[in-house]
Design brief:
Length: about 550
């Protein structure tokens, strides 16, 4: 109600608009609001709240004391690679002999596997620590134990009822207070716990330089950017904007980010695809070397290779995407989209599945057929838990794993049609027709008089934006349309007026609605307020996301 809105606004010294945005996001007390708007290191939770953390620290301390060798088993995506680098860098500072193993997507597949145990035995290493994988690797962990190799699992994927037999299994999802950490985030928590032990020769000063890698992992794995992930990004993004790591400095230059202020959204289509390209098309081991190397020559060689691989990945992706679109347009999208081909590159289908899920707003599965096996990547929409849905079909599968919004799976080709039928039934029973239609959620309704430079500065306090913390969307009703026109490449440009206030507005790729706008006396608009810098001048602008002919507020 208005009374509480005014109270929160006064208590935190913010505008009622920002107070409303916070309340809509479940942030309802002055303390919660202050913690969210001014996140700091002190807001990090005690790492020992994660079950088995004390066991992991004891075992690593024993390895340090006995001068054992350790193998960090990572994963080939950005989250796994950054998490691997975090642990390798930190553990080497303790004096441990640390090696790392990154599985090859094509030779080893996803997850903890026998190849790393063989590598550990060959090198005489007695402890393996997994990163971003292992929570479902029951048989592999048992094999390691029989081979006399201890295992510490660090993961954040959904656990099954049975856990691996390991020295310690670190997964926030086994805790009652899961904060949605990425795999790199869990690795960081382990380092934090080690630094808290006075008998281990690393300190909290060794943790802070690792936040850049943890931030990259969080953004890449699309974990919610709230609570601890928000703190990780607040601390990590400024480090990423600097030049601490030679490898990231080189990759930023090749990505056109030199001297730019790094924002979370910017990384999603610059650094992250280049880092991911290695694991999608080949061997990602060099990426860890890129993060850790202090050789200019080496980092530029690796960064250049990643840039080239990313260009190749884009071409392959475009081809698969066009082929998938033709198939969907031929048959029309049902409640779930399931597509397969013998010709699709297994390292790229996940990206295409994501684009199709976004475009058609349907849970989407893309499979690569290899002999009599179908290997798939799945992406979902917010209203459907795709991991839970796949779990209901597990008798048809050879293996699967993932999250609520993304998963990987493998099944016999003979089961593919039945799997599609089962998933269609599960989706129909789980979501309504309305859930399959994209909707815009307005954070706050405002009048144009409330849109000013101070409000935009306040909204900037909500950054970094991303999954779980999107950029606030505001709404205004009964706006008069002044001088609508199309500019540039089909962009709508218009002045919007309410009472005595007029503000410039732009709708990117919205030129097609010019006639509807021009024929409307007034409109309702959903938009993001912004500052436009032009020729050294700053002025207010509304970035339009949707418009409709004005409705009578009494008859909505």
């Amino acid at each position: 109600n208005r009374e509480y809105l005014d109270y929160l606004s006064r208590a935190v010294s913010i505008s009622p608009v920002l107070a409303q945005i916070l309340i809509n996001r479940g942030i309802k007390t002055p303390k919660d609001a202050i913690d969210f708007l001014r996140p700091g290191i002190t807001g990090l939770s005690d790492p020992f709240e994660i079950p088995d953390m004390a066991k992991a620290v004891v075992r690593i301390k024993e390895a340090i004391h006995n001068q054992e060798g350790v193998l960090v088993h990572g994963d080939y995506d950005v989250d796994g690679l950054t998490g691997t680098a975090i642990l390798v860098e930190a553990l080497r500072k303790t004096g441990l002999n640390v090696h790392y193993f990154i599985p090859d997507r094509f030779n080893h597949g996803y997850g903890f596997n026998i190849a790393s145990i063989e590598m550990a035995k060959k090198l005489g290493l007695t402890l393996i620590i997994t990163v971003d994988c292992g929570i479902t690797s029951i048989d592999v962990a048992t094999h390691a134990r029989r081979q006399g190799v201890d295992v510490i699992i660090t993961d954040h994927h959904e656990p099954m009822k049975e856990l691996p037999q390991a020295v310690a299994v670190l997964n926030p999802k086994l805790s009652s207070s899961d904060s949605g950490l990425s795999g790199a985030g869990v690795a960081l928590k382990l380092v934090h716990a080690l630094a808290m032990d006075k008998d281990i020769p690393i300190t909290e000063d060794d943790i802070w330089p690792l936040f850049d890698l943890a931030a990259l992992g969080a953004i890449a794995d699309v974990v919610p950017l709230i609570r601890e992930n928000r703190i990780i990004l607040k601390e990590g993004l400024p480090i990423l904007s600097g030049e601490r790591r030679l490898g990231l400095k080189a990759l930023k230059e090749l990505s056109g980010l030199k001297d730019r202020d790094i924002k979370a959204g910017l990384l999603s289509f610059t650094l992250i695809p280049r880092i991911n390209a290695a694991g999608r098309l080949g061997d990602a081991t060099d990426v860890v070397r890129l993060f850790l190397s202090e050789s200019e020559e080496e980092v530029w060689r690796i960064a250049g290779a990643l840039d080239s691989m990313n260009s190749k990945r884009q071409a392959i992706e475009a081809e698969i995407y066009e082929e998938a679109l033709r198939e969907i347009n031929r048959n029309g999208p049902g409640p779930v989209i399931v597509l397969s081909s013998k010709n699709w590159h297994p390292g790229v289908i996940g990206i295409v599945a994501s684009k199709i899920a976004e475009e058609f707003y349907r849970p989407t599965f893309l499979f690569t057929i290899e002999g009599d096996i179908a290997r798939g990547s799945a992406r979902s929409i917010p209203s459907f838990d795709i991991y839970s849905g796949i779990s209901c079909c597990k008798e048809l599968l050879l293996s699967f794993g993932g999250h609520k919004q993304a998963a990987g799976l493998k099944l016999p080709l003979t089961n593919l049609l039945r799997f599609e039928e089962e998933m269609a039934r599960i989706v129909r029973n789980s979501v309504s027709d309305d859930d399959l239609v994209r909707t815009l959620k307005i954070d706050s309704e405002v009048s144009l008089t409330e849109i000013n430079h101070n409000l935009i500065r306040e909204i900037a306090m909500l950054e970094p934006f991303g999954y779980g913390n999107p950029e606030p969307l505001l709404g205004s009703r009964m706006l008069d349309v002044v001088n609508p026109r199309v500019v540039g490449n089909n962009h709508l440009k218009v002045m919007l007026r309410q009472d005595e206030v007029t503000i410039d507005a732009v709708g990117f790729n919205m030129g097609d609605i010019l006639e509807d706008i021009a024929s409307s006396q007034s409109i309702d608009a959903a938009f993001i307020p912004m500052i436009n810098d032009w020729n050294g001048n700053q002025y207010l602008q509304m970035n339009l996301r949707a418009v409709r002919p004005c409705r009578d507020p009494q008859n909505l």
